[in-house]
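lol ok so funny story. i was supposed to be doing the assay writeup but got distracted and ended up predicting the structure for this chain instead. priorities right. anyway since i did it might as well share w the group, maybe its usefull for someone
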Amino acid sequence: MSTIEKIQEDVLVAEAIDETNQIVLYNDDVNTFDHVIETLIRVCDHTAIQAEQCAILVHYKGKCTVKTGSFEELKPQCTQLLEAGLSAELV
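and the output, tada:
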């Protein structure tokens, strides 16, 4: 493997690792479906259908990954979800 190929491989691995972070939304007994859906649309740029599907999954499964990406991208979004009263975690 040449030096250039090795560098390209290292960059691809770094990019893959960088995208492994995710925001997980958890079910609670406080927030309404409408609030969860509206918040996911506003904060995570979900379509109405995506947000509704996530809300349903959270309700029935207890949690759902609502966004993946880099830590730097997701941290402010997770903070906004928490500030809106949702139960979320950045993993």
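The chain has a mean pLDDT of 89. The first helix runs from residue 3 to 18.
back to the writeup now i swear
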